[in-house]
Amino acid sequence: MTVKRRTERIREWLLGLPRGVKRVITMGTDLLMLPLAVWLAFFLRLGEPFHPFFLVHWWVVLVVPPLGIACFALSGLYSMVARYIGPRAIFDVFKAAVLSTLAFVALVELMRLAPFPRSAYPIFLGLVFMIHGGIRLLASNWFKSFLSKPRGREPVAIYGAGRAGVQLRSTLLDNSEFHARLFIDDDPKLHGHVIAGLKVYAPEDLPRLIERCELRHVLLAIPSVSRGRRQEIVQSLEDYAVHVKTLPDMADLVSGRARVEQIQEIDVDDLLGRGHVDSDNALVREALDGRSAMITGAGGSIGSELARQAMTRELTRLVLFDHSEYLLYRIERELRQTAAMAGQAVEIVPLLGSATDQRRLQSAFRAYAVEVVYHAAAYKHVPLVETNPLEGIRNNALATRGVAEAAQAAGVKDMVLVSTDKAVHPHNVMGATKRLAELVLQSLAAERPGGTRYTIVRFGNVLNSSGSVVPLFREQIRHGGPVTVTHREVTRYFMSIREAASLVIQAGALSNGGEVYVLDMGKPVKILELARRMVRLSGFTVRDEANPEGDIAIDFIGLRPGEKLHEALFYGADVRDTAHPMIMQTAEPSVPWKDLSVMLDELHRAVEGFDYARATQVLCRSIRGSGMDREAYDRLAGRLEASLNEADRPQLH
What we know:
Layout: H1 3-15, H2 19-46, H3 52-56, H4 60-74, H5 87-111, H6 120-147, E1 154-159, H7 163-172, E2 178-184, E3 194-195, E4 198-201, H8 206-212, E5 217-220, H9 227-237, E6 243-246, H10 250-255, E7 264-265, H11 269-272, H12 281-288, E8 292-296, H13 301-310, E9 317-322, H14 325-342, E10 347-352, H15 358-367, E11 372-375, H16 382-387, H17 389-410, E12 414-420, H18 429-447, E13 453-459, E14 461-462, H19 469-478, E15 483-485, E16 491-492, E17 494-495, H20 497-510, E18 516-519, E19 525-526, H21 527-537, E20 542-543, E21 552-556, E22 575-577, E23 583-586, H22 593-608, H23 612-624, H24 630-643
Parallel strand pairs: 1-2, 1-5, 2-4, 5-6, 8-9, 8-11, 9-10, 11-12, 12-13, 13-18, 14-17, 15-21, 20-21
Antiparallel strand pairs: 3-4, 6-7, 16-19, 18-23, 22-23
């Protein structure tokens, strides 16, 4: 057996000993070293290894060590864990050295050992501090070097040698998955230096380091850099065969929603290259401060983010309304923890209920003096609503009417509807129900001015929401593929959940009543390119005709029923700017309430009677005069009519 292997086995054996045995070994080592400190103190002061004075008082070498051990115990040295010794331990060792020296002085004075060389005391103190402190630091580094060996862990580079990077490095010492090998940093002043035991390299060194150090992962520890710089860094890493992960961004770290050691997948918002516009604080203050607010669908992706952002304001009350017991419990628990950490006194009210229950809503509005309601409750998954059209109509369109009329009856000042780009020239039941929901608010606003102020906010897909392609792609990549894309040319609009929720709140404050606001979604994203980039940033290569030996294939499964190749955000060209650079207002035709209410009543009877044919016909007819072009209308009506011919379609949808 080699010396190196024997040493490894000794370290492993020592680490596995019971805590009491380790303490006895530490005391024994100190007991052997203290006589050395006493003898060296005499030798350095008197200049001879065996001076006559020392030969007379040799017994001091035997008496001082037990006193020193008692002083060490009083100083807490034997409660330390060797491999976790840090700066605090240095102070404790110095305290132990001072107490040991005082015990030495007391012994000499009691025994009246005169004339005793007084300068031996500070020499003894320095020797005890250096010998026993040095032994502990050496032991700590010895054990850490053993524990920090890869042992099957993935070697990683940490991008960012700042405070977050150093903290991440410290966290990874006890991590069972990753082994930090080096830092990458943009600052040329740091290149070549060693920080927290790791050498710092320039970004251009990464290609050779990946091969030399067999790196499979790069962890981004740059929570405070600008989004533009993050995007540049992420794009520069796409060409390398490494899996890019990141720390939470600064907003989550500051708010307490995340900790620096929480490593997560790369933020897809960094892939899309969207800029960031700060919130207009005056608009947010007008929308929420000092008010009682309710969020329907509070447990969903958008609803929960609306709730989180509402909690950052000075609300008097936040009512969370959802039909899912688990989702409601989860968001309530999260918000209560956030409030406790921030010392907030806001009242949080969780209410179980369905948005289709108008009496329940009206009662809740009155009981909790709700002043503003954000209606985010809806069924949004196109294929599911397509196969369950009656429930989609009930929950998306008819429920919106119920919420709006309940708000009016209870004196709610503002209602904001969260809508979707799929409501523009809809190809599917979900889009048609959301367009009808928009018409309900437009028509009520025109019919009943001076009452509840109704606002519609329309936007496209949000990243990482339930049912979106991003978590689906991540799961498929994690399982080795294939990644499924509906069509080579399909595009979608995307924005982050946080940005969408913030703009919904601000749009509500801009409204005078009945407006349709559209969020600036930037350029549409090609889903195929998004899939390719996610594969590459996961450390894999795309398997296709150009690269048949790649890791993960991309399969094209075809558009699902009701899906479009491209989405639109507006019905017409009448689009106006608002006071906010990310919010636009569009002028779109509505339907008079006296006509729309008749169709809504008919639609309600059809849904309650499980009459699929009649319900879908009325749905199409109700949105026909709302700016929908003839081609889109014929396509939707034709699809719904054709579905009636399916063999014995169940009437329970």
